[in-house]
Amino acid sequence: MGTTTPARSRSTCELRASSPCLQPSPPRYSLGQRCRSLYHALWFRLSERMRWSRTPYREVPVGHLADLAPWQTARIESLRVRYGLCFESHYGHHTSLANYAYLDLLDQAWAAADRPVPTGGLVTDVGCANFWYARTLHRFLRPAKLTGVDVEGFRLYPTGYSRYDAAAGYIEDLPQTSFVVADYCGMDEQVDVITAWFPFVTPAPVLAWRLPLTVFSPERLFARITRNLAAQGTLFMVNQGTDEANIAAAYCRQAGLRSQGQWVHPQPLRPRPHPPVASWWTA
Ligand SMILES: C[S@@+](CC[C@H](N)C(=O)[O-])C[C@H]1O[C@@H](n2cnc3c(N)ncnc32)[C@H](O)[C@@H]1O
Fold it and tell me: Would you say the CB of residue 128 lies under 6 angstroms from ligand 1?
């Protein structure tokens, strides 16, 4: 990777299999990006040093989801019946709907791919934020062990609770589930399934998530995923739109992963600017 290519042309190149720039190139940051990165780095380091934590934070359950279109209500009802879950008795409106949306994606993607769901294994979710969707993964994959990993663990929310407190609340009644604050690029743990929902593959979302660009290292991230995936194991990844999915796919291939298929969600339960793209990879 000797030359520098902007992210946009990288994705374009990825569409052509014979393209010489199939390998992602290191990004070049603007002055503005570097300034924002420095600012986020200050807060990031401060929060990691303070490691602010109170008690597990539990959302106030909304009880009933209102203001949904009839097709959303119908889809949620079918997910409720099929998976025996009722997110609104655990979470507020936003988190409940977001969990149904992730469950809907899992349900539809695996059915469309006609793949057996790899239940009962060791599962790691890479870049889980506060692991608000742990219950969805737990129910769908029925893992022997579920670990959510995020490099940022102690972001402070306006509630006075930290990301760590929120994660503790989300996982507290889920057996064999944990939240680990760590850079996944340094983790050594062989597992059967790795899930990655919207991993950073371009720098702009890193800054939008108020993180420093020092955490942006997709080559290392996907190399580590490859290394930690058991033989016959599966990486299930979700990206934002086909452009981002193409960039992510190039990183996967560069890391030695092999594609097992891709599926674009035709009608996400929660509308998004770009359709979620699911893909399956093996080492
Ligand atoms: C776009 S967010 C997605 C969050 C979550 N998966 C979701 O669907 O809501 C990406 C997350 O990856 C985390 N992350 C980025 N690099 C990481 C690394 N090297 N190790 C662990 N987590 C990382 C970030 O802190 C952030 O929470």
Answer: yes
